[in-house]
User: Fold this.
Amino acid sequence: MTDAAELRTRTRALLAAHPPAETGRTDFLKARFDAGLAWVHYPVGLGGLDAARSLQAVVDAELEAAGAPDNDPRRIGIGLGMAAPTILAYGTGEQKRRFLRPLWVGEEVWCQLFSEPGAGSDLAALGTRAVRDGDDWVVDGQKVWTSSAHLARWAILIARTDPDAPKHRGITYFLCDMTDPGVEVRPLRQITGEAEFNEVFLTGVRIPDAHRLGPVGDGWQVARTTLMNERVSIGGMRLPREGGMIGPVARTWRDRPELRTHDLHQRLLTLWVDAEVARLTGERLRQQLAAGQPGPEGSGMKLAFARLNQEISGLEVELRGDEGLLYDDWTMRRPELVDFTGRDAGYRYLRSKGNSIEGGTSEVLLNIVAERVLGLPAEPRNDKDVAWKDLAR
Assistant:
C-alpha cells in the first residue's frame, strides 16, 4: 500500500528531476501524470498509484510548496469532474490511455452534450438520434446550455439509439470529436451579457463505434455516473472558511459599517452559518468519496449550493443599496471560466440564477434526495415503460 511517506518521496523525486523553475508547464504536468501523481487514487499507468484518494492532499501540498504549476482545474473542470471518472468507470483500456492524460494535463478541453431544448429537465426524454452505419454512428440533433463548447476538443454525448425502447433504455453514450465538420457551436448569450454557454447543432456527425462508452442502449446508466460526479464537482468544491459567495458579503459588512442594519445583520448571520455548514458537509462528502464512488448525497450538496448562492447574492445587492444596482460590463464575450468572486455584486446576483438549473434542476434533485436519501415513495411515472417514440411531445 502506498502511504504518505512514499508519496512525499515520489513527489520530491519528480521535483528534482523536473524543477518547476526550469521545466515548461506542460512538460511538468506530463511528467507528474506519468509519475502517478496526477490523481493518486487512479490506476497505475493512468495518472495514479492505486493509493487512497485522501492522500492526494499530501502530493498537492508538496507541489504547492515548491511552486509547481497546476493544471488550471477551473478551466478544465468538465473534463476532470465528469468525463474522466466516467471514462475510468466504463472506458476500454485503449480509451483510458488515449483520453485521460491529455485531459488531465489540459491539452484537450471537454464539454458535455446532454441537455436538449425539447427535453427540459427530463434528460431521459432526449431526442438526438444516433444511427449505426457500419463501424460508425451518424448523429443528428441539438444540444443546449453547453459550457465550454467553444473551447472544447472533445465532448461527452448521449443520444437516442433505440426509439422503440422506453426512454431510459434506448440511450447510448459517446465521446464526440468537436472538430467534426458536422458540429456547429453557437453562442448563447445570458442575462449576464456573456456567452458562457452555447447551443450545439449536430448534423451527420460520424462517431466511430470505438468512441462509444459502455454498451449500446445502456447510456443512461453511464450518464448517471457522469451526473453524480457533476453534482459533487459543483456542490462539493473545497473552500476555505468564508470562501465562495459568502466572502465578498462578509468583507463588505466589515469594511462598510454605514451599510449595516439590524435586519441585514440577522440575515447575514443565518447565511454565514448555512455557508459554513455546507462547507463542512462538503468536507465530509469528500471523505466519503475517498472510500468509494459518489452517491446521491452529491445532489443534496448541489441543492444547498444553488440556494445559498442565490440567497447570499440577493443579500449582497440589498446590502450595497444603490451600488448593488450597478453592473460593471455588459460586453458580449465568451469566457473560459465562470468567476463569481472576480466580478461585482450585480454579476453574482444575475449569474447565480442559473445555479438552480445547471447540473440538474433543483426540482429534479429534490426528487433524488427524497427517493434515494430519505427513502420516500417515488413519484408516479406513467411513461416508465412506454416506448420513447410513443411519448407525447
